[in-house]
Amino acid sequence: MKDKEKESDQTSSGLPEMPNLPPMPLSANMSNEASTAIDYPEGHRAGFVNIVGSPNVGKSTLMNKLVGENISIINKKAQTTRHRIMGIVNQPDWQIVYSDTPGVLDPAYKLQEGMMKFVKTALQDADVLILVTDVYEYGIAHEATFEKIAKMEIPVFILINKVDLEGQDVAMERAEYWKKRMPNAHVAPISALHNFNVDTLLESIVEKLPLAPPFFPKDELTDKPLRFFVSEIVREKILTHYKQEIPYSCEVVVEEFIDEPTIFKIRAEIRVARESQKYIVVGAGGRMIKRVGTDSRKELESFLGKKVFLDLYVRVDKDWRNDEGKLKRFGYFD
Question: Is there a common fold for 45-208 and 226-329?
């Protein structure tokens, strides 16, 4: 359905007082054998810095802060991130390829199996690994993943996020807990939302990158095409406006993406698993889908830098979450 103009309000809150925690120390005491740089200026560093952790601990917020752009969509609902999303940060002497990954879990259906494959790959190709937890978490949601991380021989950072929500005593107790569980890891408190300790984290990561030429051209920001971000922006609005199972039963597929001189013309389908879900997504008189379309178009125009004509359709695609063929088309399996 063609969306209509609709104003939306945004609110902001002040920065809360952070606990009186020590700054993150530089990781000079961590070992990391550097490889030899080839065909690039002497001393150049590059590597894959992959972010893993339980659902809803703030991985995507941290990723966006580190990259300096909103690469990953953010929502309070768990399992917001479904794909492995790379964000590339460049300086003359180094390149960091960050990866945001889905929250670790025990898969209940094929879609979640595909999501966990992204996590598995991120563990395999990481030069530096960031395990994000928070002040409320003991262990992580998938213990087998932690056991793999504990055996890794690369630099590992365990970052205790959301320290702005609790006092100093809780944050320090969490830090001691993780130091005992993984003595060789670098453990530090952060607030990704408020950028607490994130700048020092960057310095520590650069120190641990291997000597290597860049993996991507220096002007690239991500490995994903524009179509991917269109579908993610629409999906984020679905996460925002619908409750219960609806956001987890939807997939957004961009069927048409036309770049004209003054406008992008985009046609996207919202796939749902059941007819009853289609009625909920559309809403009475089409009001809900119009709201999703309006909010999506506004954000897309800001993201793409020009006018957007957005057509959204809802289609029933039964059991798409367990159909490996369809999941391959949607990018969850090779």
Answer: no
Name the amino acid, one letter, at 325: G
| Max CA pair span of the chain | 64
Residues 229 and 303 sit within 8 Å (Cβ to Cβ): yes
CATH fold for the domain made of 45-208: Rossmann fold (3.40.50)
| Residue 9: φ, ψ to 5° | -100, 145
Of residues 136, 138, 101, 132, the one with CA closest to residue 197? 132
Which string of DSSP letters, residue by residue, matches 154-171? Answer: S-EEEEEE-GGGS-HHHH
Instruction: Spell out the domain ranges in the chain.
Output: 45-208, 226-329
CATH 3.30.300.20 fits domain 226-329: yes
Strand order in the sheet with 307-316: 251-259, 263-272, 307-316
- pLDDT tens string 282-332: 999 999 999 999 999 999 999 999 999 999 999 999 999 999 999 999 999
Separation between Cα atoms, residue 268 and residue 221, nearest integer Å:
24
Q: Computed over its alpha carbons, how large is the radius of gyration of the chain?
A: 21
Q: How far is CA 245 from CA 82, 150, 249, 280, 311, in A?
A: 15, 34, 6, 11, 24
CB 281 within 8 A of CB 288: yes
Contacts of 220 (CB under 8 A, 6+ apart): 88
Strand partners, 85: 100
Six-digit token string for 239: 């996460």
Q: pTM of the full predicted structure? A: 0.86
Task: Provide the token pair at 237.
Answer: 């609005």
Q: Which two tokens stand for residue 31?
A: 């070992």
- Per-residue model confidence as pLDDT tens digits over 221-272: 999 999 999 999 999 999 999 998 899 999 999 999 999 999 999 999 999 9
